[in-house]
Write a structure and sequence with these properties.
Blueprint lengths: L12 H52 L6 E2 L12 E2 L1 H4 L6 H5 L10 E2 L2 E2 H4 L18 E4 L7 E4 L3 E2 L1 E4 L3 H4 L42 E5 L6 E3 L2 E4 L25 E3 L38 E6 L4 E5 L4 H8 L10
Length: 337
C-alpha cells in the first residue's frame, strides 16, 4: 500500500475569498477606465456630428447666399413658406435627408398632418446626426399636450441654434458695471416672428466679431427631459396642467421653439414638478431648459460649433460673460484669453 502524498487538490475557503477580492478590485479599476474611453469616443462622435452640421450650414449659405432663419414663428396666407418650423427642415438636403424635405409642406406648421401635409409624421423621424451619443434615451420624442389636438410631437435633437443673448443675460449672469455686455445682442441666426416684420437675412459677412469667435450651433442635450448640473432632474411630462409637469422646452428638431436667445431663466411648468428656476448665476451645463445656456451630458464641458466650421470642447469653467461674447456676432468685445 502506497503512503498518502499529502498534496491538496483544491483551494481553501480563505484562498478563494482572496482571489474573488482581487478580481473585484481589478474590475473596479477597469470599469472607470472603460467608461472614460467610451465617453471620449462619444465626445468625438458628437464633435463630428457638429462638424457635419457646420459643413451643411456653409453649403446652404453657398447655395442661398445666407444662413437659414433660426425659426419661423407664424403662418400667414399669401406669404410663402412662413409656417412655423426651425432651421433644421431647411437644412435637411445638406445632411443627406433631402427625402424628408421633398415630402414636407413648407406652407404648413411642423406638427400638422392633414390632406395636404405629412409634416407631423415626418417630424417624428429619428436623425442620428442630430443626436449626441452621450445622451441617454436617444430616440426620445417631444410630446407636448395641447388643449386642442393634435399634440406637438417630434423626434428630439441635442443641438440648437443660438439667436443671441437675451435682455436678461447680464442680470442672470451676475454681471455688473463695466463687466456687462452692452453691444448688439444678436447671434448669427435670425428669427422671423411676425408677418409684419421684414424678412430677416443673415450672412457670413454680418459676423463682425470674426467667424472663429462666434458660436453657430451649440449643445443643449437631453431635452425634453430636464437636466440640471449634468443630472437628470425629471423625465418630461409636457402638460402644464399636470401635477407632475416637467419640461425642458423645444426638444424636437422641427419645432420653432428649438432656437432661442441664451441667458434666460424660465420654469415652463410655472411651479410644477420642477421646483424653482434653473441655477443662477448662469453656467455652462447648469441646465438644459429653454433659454438658459449651452448644456451637454459630457463630463466637464460641452461641444460648440463656431462659424468658421471648427468645433471646440469648452470647459464648464468658462465664464458666462465669455459665453455671451462668443454668442453675439457683432458685440465688439475682446474675447478673453
Amino acid at each position: 500500500m502506497k503512503a498518502c502524498s499529502g498534496k491538496r487538490l483544491g483551494f481553501t475557503l480563505i484562498e478563494l475569498l482572496v482571489v474573488i477580492a482581487i478580481i473585484a478590485i481589478l474590475v473596479g479599476l477597469l470599469v472607470p477606465a472603460v467608461q472614460k474611453v467610451r465617453e471620449a469616443a462619444n465626445r468625438m462622435s458628437c464633435s463630428n456630428n457638429m462638424k457635419q452640421l457646420g459643413l451643411a450650414l456653409h453649403n446652404y449659405h453657398d447655395s442661398r447666399g445666407e444662413f437659414p432663419m433660426s425659426r419661423r414663428g407664424f403662418k400667414a396666407s399669401g406669404v410663402l413658406e412662413t409656417a412655423q418650423r426651425s432651421w433644421i427642415p431647411d437644412t435637411l438636403p445638406f445632411i443627406e435627408q433631402g427625402a424628408i424635405l421633398a415630402a414636407w409642406n413648407l406652407n404648413e406648421n411642423w406638427w400638422i398632418d392633414n390632406a395636404t401635409s405629412r409634416n407631423g409624421t415626418l417630424a417624428q423621424t429619428q436623425i442620428k446626426l442630430l443626436k449626441c451619443p452621450t445622451t441617454p434615451n436617444a430616440d426620445r420624442l417631444q410630446n407636448k399636450t395641447e388643449p386642442t389636438p393634435p399634440n406637438k410631437i417630434g423626434a428630439c435633437t441635442d443641438y440648437f441654434a443660438p439667436e443671441g443673448i437675451a435682455a436678461s443675460f447680464n442680470t442672470n449672469a451676475a454681471l455688473t458695471g463695466a463687466s456687462q455686455l452692452t453691444g448688439p445682442r444678436q447671434g448669427v441666426f435670425a428669427p422671423w416672428l411676425l408677418a409684419t416684420d421684414p424678412r430677416p437675412s443673415s450672412r457670413i459677412t454680418d459676423i463682425q466679431d470674426g467667424s472663429s469667435n462666434t458660436i453657430l450651433v451649440g449643445e443643449n442635450a437631453g431635452r425634453e427631459d430636464v437636466y440640471r448640473n449634468g443630472r437628470l432632474l425629471s423625465v418630461s411630462v409636457a402638460n402644464s396642467a399636470a401635477a407632475n409637469c416637467a419640461r425642458a422646452r423645444g426638444g424636437a428638431w422641427a419645432t420653432n421653439d428649438s432656437p432661442y436667445e441664451i441667458g434666460q431663466a424660465i420654469n415652463w411648468c410655472n411651479g410644477g414638478a420642477v421646483p424653482g428656476l434653473p441655477p443662477l448665476p448662469l453656467k455652462l451645463n447648469g441646465s438644459n431648459e429653454w433659454g438658459y445656456l449651452y448644456s451637454s451630458l459630457h463630463t466637464g464641458g460641452a461641444n460648440l460649433l463656431f462659424a468658421d466650421g471648427s468645433v471646440r470642447f469648452t470647459s464648464e469653467g468658462i465664464s458666462a460673460r465669455t459665453i455671451g461674447i462668443l454668442t453675439t456676432k457683432a458685440g465688439g468685445e475682446v474675447v478673453p484669453d
